């Protein structure tokens, strides 16, 4: 469950770098905040895909006809291909940040979706009876060149993400709400896991004056009111509500409160959920269920 109303599964993955204080260098964090945003990276990838389609269409025409000036009908076909591609890639969920970490699965999906784009364009040309108006060599060069361009782009992005993570630039800054047993059981596997990408900034809890200054080495930074002030002054990517699900009223209050900030808010698993991290999450209509056996 998330504050935005979407069902999500909060699971411990990634290497944690626990903050030693409540705030780091504001200049440093602000400077890396834009480039490390998954939405910005995916947006730039979409723009790059558009550029690939346009450039390869022009180059393919130049290779076939000896001029890079596209006639009107080829311009129309390029725009149609661009629109179909964006829709197929979007609904095929190619622009998924998690997929950027998995180069070969991403290329496999790209092959499937790009093949679908080609078939759709062929079908459109057949039904509106314009397929004979276009050079098949141009179409083949365009499709093949665009595919190679898409693959090269994603390889570059994959390598760039790896480089950013090594330098600590592409790191998800995370805070936890709640300093009880749920928080402890969430933090322990998160700190022990081997992958990169998570910076556990701190914990916020209403009982700040009655709890230790640190939980599993993570600093307690303040109360919920102080959290709201903190996230407006510091770049935070994700908030995890580590509270028991039985505290339904309090959870709803917090989720409603956190709707006002543009941050991903996730609900930590309840007690049994910590024992079932190897089970997948499924959706049954509007309900979320966890698979226990095949």
Task: Give structural notes.
It is a single chain. The chain is of the alpha/beta class and 294 residues long. Helix content is 49%, strand content 12%. Strands 3-4-2-1-5-6 form a six-stranded mixed sheet. Strand 1 (172-177), helix 6 and strand 2 form a beta-alpha-beta unit. Helix 2 packs antiparallel against helix 3 (72-91), helix 2 (38-65) runs antiparallel to helix 5 (136-166) and helix 4 runs antiparallel to helix 5 (136-166). The longest helix is centred in the middle third of the chain and has 31 residues, at 136-166. Mean pLDDT is 77; it is low at 1-9, 11-34 and 272-294.
How much of the sequence is in beta strands?
A: 5-15%
Order of strands, main sheet, comes to: 3-4-2-1-5-6
Count of individual helical segments:
8
In one word, what is the shape? Answer: elongated
How would you spell out the order of helices and strands? HHHHHEHEEEHEHEEE
Q: Give the fraction of residues assigned to helices.
A: 40-55%
What are the low-pLDDT stretches, counting only 5+ consecutive residues below 50?
1-9, 11-34, 272-294
Give the number of DSSP strands.
Answer: 8
Give the N-to-C terminal Cα separation: 24 Å
Oligomer: single chain
């Amino acid at each position: 469950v998330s504050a935005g109303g979407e069902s999500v599964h909060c699971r411990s993955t990634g290497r944690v770098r626990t903050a030693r204080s409540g705030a780091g260098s504001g200049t440093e964090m602000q400077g890396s905040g834009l480039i490390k945003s998954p939405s910005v990276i995916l947006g730039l990838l979409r723009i790059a895909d558009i550029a690939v389609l346009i450039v390869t269409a022009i180059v393919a025409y130049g290779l076939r006809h000896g001029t890079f000036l596209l006639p009107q009908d080829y311009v129309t076909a390029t725009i149609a291909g661009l629109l179909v591609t964006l829709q197929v890639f979007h609904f095929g969920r190619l622009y998924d940040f998690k997929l950027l970490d998995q180069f070969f699965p991403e290329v496999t999906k790209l092959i499937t979706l790009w093949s679908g784009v080609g078939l759709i364009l062929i079908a459109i040309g057949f039904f509106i009876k314009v397929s004979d108006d276009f050079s098949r060599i141009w179409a083949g060069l365009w499709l093949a060149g665009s595919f190679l361009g898409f693959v090269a782009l994603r390889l570059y992005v994959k390598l760039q993400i790896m480089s950013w993570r090594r330098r600590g630039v592409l790191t998800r800054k995370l805070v936890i709400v709640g300093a009880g047993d749920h928080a402890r059981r969430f933090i322990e596997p998160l700190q022990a896991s081997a992958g990169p990408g998570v910076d556990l900034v701190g914990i916020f809890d209403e009982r700040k004056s009655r709890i230790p200054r640190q939980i599993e080495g993570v600093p307690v930074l303040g109360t919920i009111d102080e959290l709201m002030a903190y996230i407006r002054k510091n770049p935070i990517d994700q908030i995890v509500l580590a509270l028991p699900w039985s505290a339904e009223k309090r959870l709803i209050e917090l989720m409603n409160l956190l709707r006002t900030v543009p941050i991903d808010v996730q609900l930590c698993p309840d007690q049994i959920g910590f024992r079932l991290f190897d089970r997948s999450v499924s959706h049954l209509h509007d309900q979320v269920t966890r698979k226990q056996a095949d």
